[in-house]
Amino acid sequence: MQINCSIVDFKKPKTLRGCTTRVKNLYKQSIQAQEKISVERAMLLTEFYKNNNIDSIPLKRAAAFDYILENKKVTIFEGELIVGERGELPKATPTYPEINLHSLEDLKILNEREKVPYKVDKEVFELYKDVIIPYWSGKTIREKIFSNMDKAWLNAFEAGIFTEFMEQRAPGHTVLGDRIYKFGMLDIIDQIDQIIIDLKNDSDSLSKIEELQAMKIAAKAIIKFARRYAEQALELSKTEHDQKRKEELLEIARICNKVPAYKPDSFYEALQYYWFVHLGVVIELNGWDSFSPGKLDMHLYPFYKKDIENGNLTKEKAKELLECLWIKFYNHPAVAKVGVTAQESATYTDFAQINLGGLDEKGNPSVNELSYLILDVIEEMRLVQPNPSIHVSKKTPDEFIKRAIDIIKTGFGQPAIFNADAVVQELLRQGKSIEDARLGGTSGCVESGAFGKESYTLTGYFSLPKVLEITLNNGIDPLTNKQIGLKTGDFKDFETFNELFDAFKKQLKYFIDVKIKGNLVIEQIYAKYCPAPFLSILIDDCVKNGKDFNAGGARYNTCYIQGTGIGTITDSLSSIKYLVFEKKTIKPQDLLSMLKSNFEGFEVQRQIMLNKVPKYGNDDDYADTIMQEVFEEFFNNIDGKATYKGGTFRINMLPTTVHVYFGSKMLATPDGRLAYEPISEGISPVQGADRKGPTAVIKSASKMDHIKTGGTLLNMKFTPDLLKDKKGTDALVSLIRAYFKLDGHHVQFNVVDAHTLRQAQKKPQDYSDLIVRVAGYSDYFCHLNEQLQNEIIARTEHSFK
Amino acid sequence: MKGLIFDIKKYSIHDGEGIRTTVFFKGCPLNCFWCHNPESQSFKTQIIHYSDKCINCKTCEIVCKKHAIKVIDKKVYIDNFSCDLCIDCTKSCPTGALSSIGTLYSVDEILDEILKDKIFYTNGGVTISGGEPFLQINFLMALLKKLKENHIHIAIDTCGYTKFSNIKNAAVYADQFLYDLKIMDPVLHIKYTGVSNEIILENLEKLSNIARDKINIRLPIIPTINDNLDNLSQTANFLKKLKISKIDILAYHNFMVDKYKRLNMDFKLKHIKKPKDEEINSIVNFFRSQDFTVEVGG
Fold it and tell me: Which of A177, A501, A630, B225 has the most Cβ atoms closer than 10 angstroms to its Cβ?
């Protein structure tokens, strides 16, 4: 997942953030640290693979994991309370050559690109050239994937019909449940031993034993890793002159000796335990969306409460510890991509989502004192990661939403807001137990899952508008003139809209089948070649089943395909229905030439398409019904199909930033969009197509059956002015409540700053959905005259700190 | 029966409580110098042109049956004598550069739009504003009745310049009145709004006798015109006499100057700047110190 979940970057902070000087210093260190490629993991892995011949893949991967943790650099930085880093330094980002191997050219791009660079030292280039590339070339998962895909898949992939998540990163989006708060790794090792003893001799038992042995190695490895930190802390304490710091180091040593070997007993121990586990997961593999603690407020609250009651912890100390954890998350940029993606990928954010509020297993709202304290931390730290969200059930008090709005108002898109009741319904529909559903939540951008019990992987974005483009061209991609789809008939010969829609349905089914066929192979590749024994001990019931997380060991297994561009395809179909088949003011062959020529010489027709056709986002059933039909087709072709590892395919509706990429692979569309421009994002209307305000957007969006998805993403932009007073906050609460009553899954409010408004003035076409409050009413920023825009910019500047 | 409406704004959050839909009636008996919605004054549909959106396609010229419109260099010239306001031109303008202010709606058409947002009205509802809603009394009454049947909270924003029987009839359905008080001095009132305030004050008094709790006074603050202590004291005294306690302070702004230009209307307050926050605060305090419940907004 990238961007959209929150869009602020700040390399040069005006103020240092954190509730204590210690945190401020750590904050400074983290903000100023340079994102770099760390070669440490790749080198250790390569050394290990070169020198060890272990036949069993799980055992080999577990032993390699152990080797990396045993030999990687261990440092405790000045003032740290939570210890452990993924690389040698904050923001030193490891690579995973067994998955995708950076070429020297990739490294050069990463090093030199202007935006979001990862600096690559000369030594790293050398080691890649001499050691890493020669060893891994031809052995990577990425190569296995591409060499196993058929022509139809490769055609569709290259044409921008869909993307593939697992070609660069391992299956991810995984969220922890409460396992680590109940068991130490030694308990888990005991459990594994017992399961090995109880194993019945069947055809799988050998592979189960191998897998379980691998899990044991991984569990032991993380204990040893933590104890290396304990030794380091003890060592440092010997030379530490500051008495207070000396005591802190001794406490760190004590904690790192205890967790993760034993279960935590205090708030501090629980946090440190989580962080070791987090490090284990992100060092073992480069799974998507980092790794997430899930319902952090719920899991930590018993520790917090007990410590406070016993006088072992103060609220301030708890806040400081949480802030230290926040910095740890911020120290970890997303892993660097390869190939074209390396050029395009424009964010360091890795989307570890932290869920606040929501429900407990009995269905009670689980907002507690710690939920509010964590919101304080979010407001204080203003970091783009971790990526926090609040989960609102009908039982959640308004005060909690209002506190979140207070933070949203300050203008950095956090926290996102989710409908806890909808998430439960979604998970129930997918067949989860009610308890598992309630203890679920969302990760990555908006994806629903049963925390601690599910492998739910996003497998790729799917461009709905591109399928329409192929349909209009009888299976040919007009960008390359290649026949990549079915021959479903010449658009010129269609006499009714339904004929066109039937052709679209056939193409859609075809491309979805191509995507799914590819997915099944890719799943097998990961199951066979890329087990994740460490992750497996964290997620129920991998241990019980003696089966790897990547092979279907989890209690639930789901593969999502994410539909993108619902706004663009709806408006395009609406345009064709209205202008070509009903009003008959545009002939089919003329439409095709308009699209081919990028409306060159057809500006009047384009303006009609933009302004005079019913559009999604305006609570207009003409367009919204088309949206529902497209959605149902997409759903029916995917939902319920079996995955390779015994799970089920489901759908999601979210874009991250792929709508820009998909747009770049398309000519002009019948909604008036010009060639190569982005398509619509999430389930948001086409940029600027919504003309009736936020309530109409919410009504249109809620006509989609969210409960049939595993997540939808709706972005709305507001200026701070619209939220400046109590009335603004109250109205937003009502807006959210109404959307959730209509089963909406997620909404996020971007409160924009003056800079954005200025950009909007320069490029109104890119900001046409920006809503501002003028005077007693709200309007679209781009509809206002320049003088008024300037006035609002001036006001907006004042409202920001 | 149709009503002439110039806008239906959803997600209105400063025209009464909660999320509201505001329906703007076109036509006003007053002609205030500071009018923030000059397009609301005329009782006729008006055609307005945004040359920045015009692409010189001349579709409007082609569709006009009366040959009353000419486009030269993205500027539109309308012959008002020939134009019969059929608005074919605005309907067919591809970019929306040419648009009409004022559309005829039936009660059911407006109701459909309003009901679309019913789920948002938990603490809100509908505000009828303008212009002056009471100028279209039959249409207004029909709409109010329908709204009440649908259990929707109703606020009416009025200048009070109408027959009291109209207000009385509306009070049966309305849950709230947003009642404008502009200037207490009758002569100055005539000077700046075009009408005497006698009926307005009288109506307010009568309304206070039958529906005191439903009244919110809306007080626009126009620097140098009505922000003097004299006017404010008279206002306060009058309201105290009527035992009306809720006041909304609306600060003057000049965001609408551009609208005057586009409508070829004369804007008479060019020299006046919007009041400073301190001034608004001191006026708020002035009323609060006399036990009024005061909110700033609008």
Answer: A630
